[in-house]
Amino acid sequence: MNQSIAHAELIATFKRADADAAHKFGLIKAVEQKGPKAIQAAIETAARAAKRRASLAKKLNVLGVSLKD
């Protein structure tokens, strides 16, 4: 596979993970009224999404790709 294609795919995956993490953090606000268990579940889900995003950012950084907003 061409490296530039692989980088583009990794960047696209990162951007999807970034959007997913932002969405999951937004869900925390949405479940505020549902109680502590719902909030905890939303926090754990958001943390996993943020971890995926950080992992992809680290891979991109190793490749020399910087995704500063």
Provide an overview of this structure.
- The chain has 69 residues and is mainly alpha-helical.
- Helices cover 80% and strands 0% of the residues.
- The chain contains two helices and no strands.
- The protein has helices spanning 3-30, 36-62.
- 7% of the residues are buried.
- The model has no long low-confidence stretch (mean pLDDT 86).
Q: Helicity level, as a percent range?
A: over 70%
- What is Rg? 15 Å
Shape call: elongated
Largest sheet: none
The number of distinct helices, counting runs of at least 4 residues, comes to 2
Say how many strands there are: 0
* First-to-last CA distance: 28 Å
Low-confidence stretches: none
Q: What's the rounded overall pLDDT mean?
A: 86
**What structural class should be given to the helix and strand makeup?**
mainly alpha
Strand content: under 5%
User: What is the N-to-C order of secondary-structure elements (H for helix, E for strand)?
Assistant: HH
